[in-house]
Specification:
Blueprint (H helix, E strand, L loop, with lengths): L6 H22 L7 H17 L3 E5 L4 E6 L9 E4 L8 E5 L5 E3 L22
Antiparallel strand pairs: 1-2, 1-4, 2-3, 4-5
Length: about 130
């Protein structure tokens, strides 16, 4: 009798080790929060509305381009602009009151349903 392992036994052990590694690997990788960029921009737009005591409008395009405009000072141009990644699938417009509450614009109310924001704090569910 020869001592050692057959090729089949080695392959079976390697496959089992690969499966175990695949199951355990996600525990070692930090979760990616895909909505972190949108959440950050919403928080900054809300803070800007409170700081300026003016209603603000945040527009986010499906391309990822976003802009914050003052409702009363819309003629002066955007107060802030930028791009986010990953971009939302649909265009979204949120209106922020000077008191810090927020609501989706009437034109994009259906599209804003995926955000599930608290209208008083503009924060998502915990």
């Amino acid at each position: 009798m020869s001592k050692g392992y057959t090729l089949i036994e080695v392959i079976v052990v390697l496959v089992l080790m690969a499966l175990a590694a695949a199951l355990v690997a996600p525990a070692f990788v930090a979760p990616r929060d895909r909505g972190a960029a949108i959440t950050r921009i919403i928080g900054e737009a809300r803070a800007l509305a409170i700081r300026r005591a003016e209603a603000m409008e945040l527009s986010i395009e499906p391309s990822g381009a976003w802009r914050v405009d003052g409702v009363a000072t819309a003629q002066t141009g955007p107060l802030a602009t930028g791009t986010i990644s990953p971009a939302p699938a649909v265009a979204l417009v949120l209106v922020f009151s000077p008191l810090g509450s927020c609501a989706p614009s009437v034109t994009t109310a259906a599209a804003a349903g995926f955000l599930q924001l608290d209208p008083l704090t503009c924060e998502g569910p915990s």
